[in-house]
Amino acid sequence: MPNVIVAPSGSTRGANFSFPNVKGTGRCGPYIWVDGVLDHSGRFDELAPDDIAAIEVYPHAFTTPGQFIVRKDQQMCGSVVVWTKRSFP
Q1: Which residues does 54 contact at the CB level (< 8 Å), separation at least 6?
Q2: Are 33 and 46 in contact (CB under 8 A)?
Q3: Closest to 53 (Cα-Cα) out of 30, 79, 86
Q4: Strand order in the sheet with 52-60
Q5: Measured distance CA(42)–CA(55) in Å, rounded
Q6: How many structural domains is the chain composed of?
Q7: Residue 84, SS3 per DSSP
Q8: Domain boundaries, position 24
Q9: From CA 67, how far away is CA 78, in angstroms rounded?
Q10: Given CA atoms 59, 32, 57, 68 in this order, what sign does their dihedral have?
């Protein structure tokens, strides 16, 4: 996607994402959501590719669905939403 940078994090599975900030003057780290829950624990880095059903990428807060926006953040960075196969019946 344009303006999205993905780089290895140094671990065997992890990655660092960088999105443009809301002002367009810098970059910020997006919020990572796994199965509709904000990922504070690093669960995303532990997911195997076979566990993932879908990934949604919203590089700007203005295009992110309301339930995936963290309103306390002044940068209002975008979000990466990951859905695992466990979240589907």
Answers
A1: 82, 83
A2: no
A3: 86
A4: 37-38, 31-34, 77-84, 52-60
A5: 16
A6: 1
A7: strand
A8: 5-87
A9: 12
A10: negative
Query: Three-state SS for 87?
Result: helix
Amino acid 40: pLDDT: 83
Report strand pairing: 27-28 vs 31-34: unpaired
* pLDDT for res 37: 92
Q: Residue 25 is encoded by which pair of tokens?
A: 């003057």
Cα atoms found within 13 Å of the Cα of residue 59, Cβ hemisphere only: 14
Segment (H or E) for 83: strand 77-84
In angstroms, what CA-CA distances link 49 with 41, 70, 77? Answer: 18, 26, 25
pLDDT tens, position by position, 8-62: 766 655 677 888 877 777 888 888 999 999 988 777 878 888 999 999 999 888 8
